[in-house]
Amino acid sequence: MITKRIIPCLDVRDGRVVKGVNFEGLNDVSSPVELGKFYNDNGADELVFYDITASSEGRSLFADILRKVAEQIFIPLTVGGAINTLEDFDRVLKCGADKVSVNSGAIRNPDLIYEAAKKYGSQCVVLSADVKRVDGRFTVFAKGGRINTGLDALEWIKRGVERGAGEIVLNSIDTDGVKNGFDISMLEAVCEAVNIPVIASGGAGCIDDFTVLFSNLPKVDAGLAASVFHFGEVKIPELKVRLREKGIPVRL
Amino acid sequence: MTVIVDYGVGNLFSLKSSLDYLGEDGIVSGDENIIRSADRIILPGVGAFADAKKKLSSNSLDKVVVEEAKKCKPLMGICLGMQLLFEKSYEFGATEGLSLIAGEVKPIAPVIPKGYKVPHIGWNSLHFTGKGRNSEVFKYIAEGEFVYFVHSFAAMGCEDSVTAFAEYGADLTAAVQRGNVFGMQFHPEKSGETGLRILKAFCEL
Questions:
Q1: Angle formed at CA A122 by CA A126 and CA A102, multiple of 5 degrees
Q2: 0.85 surpassed by complex ipTM
Q3: Parent domain of A23
Q4: Which residue of A2, A93, A166 is in closest CB contact with B168?
């Protein structure tokens, strides 16, 4: 039986893991290599590394770290952050990434999804969307949630799937950092719109937020979170035991 | 020494890291002499079948792999590398495979119920066939252990060779074996401890 995936996300800047609340106020948490290995050994089904570095020196540092992480972890690894061209795909895939997450780069150039899917396969292309309600409408934001693109989120995600995206990460800006649960209604709308795996992101604060997510939305494939895992508020082995008790299939 | 065949497709880094972790002497190479001198061969691959077959054939590595397999050298195809072991694939038109195992590679969409997503992505459990329970590569793992899948096509019409299947609304071919030739539809190098134990068993052949 296919299982629900639990995915810690590591935001990395200049070689260190940071976590923003509502995308602001970043705190240094730990070393990406140590944290990645910890999660690999403690029940994570997959890892996401998000590079929020701005400088090119930072990028090469990230590449070195990514290689070190990939040498030590034997679960799927997704990398995102400043992926704008096929060369960027190539750069992170060569360092050991299995999938590449696109966000603002795909908004600027939607052909990026198609070209990457053609070259590397759809399984490699993850469309990550930061979505916020604006006047009651699900709207796509770019640049780490700072810029309102005016794009309708459901239309944008459907277009992404048509162009070849293999998975969707839906990050609700409305619930991100609030730790009051995933954005069930937004996720439900996306799950109805597409038939590829949907990864829920934004809002996890405790174990029950995950049981509520998977119980209410059987179509959601995975739950992604950062700080609740990094600070040990949710321990993945305990989370998975609880999910299994609730009848939700997980890898133990 | 185990050679990971480099023919320009796939994430070879993870496989090499897995072998390093296991303390196995692994070499990533597309050199005929190295492949011929290896004790065992891993044929990796992601992407599309036709493109991969073309790349494998362009420097005659397809012949090298087939010849070495026929000398009873252990060969493991992983993901697309497994699909290449079969007679034919229907991904983007019909393309001939290496024909080391009887069967064809077809889309999973028509055989799974509506509502199941394609690709089949994620951790799914392995269920052994009678043959699979005795397969050397599974000697360190138990029925029901989880491995990581990412695929939209699967081997069909190969019942005699199936060693394990995954339940996804239908029984999808997860692993096959014909003598010294093994195929894994999932990614052992991305399947945590379970996958490492499969690779360890293969490296002991």
A1: 25
A2: yes
A3: 5-245
A4: A2
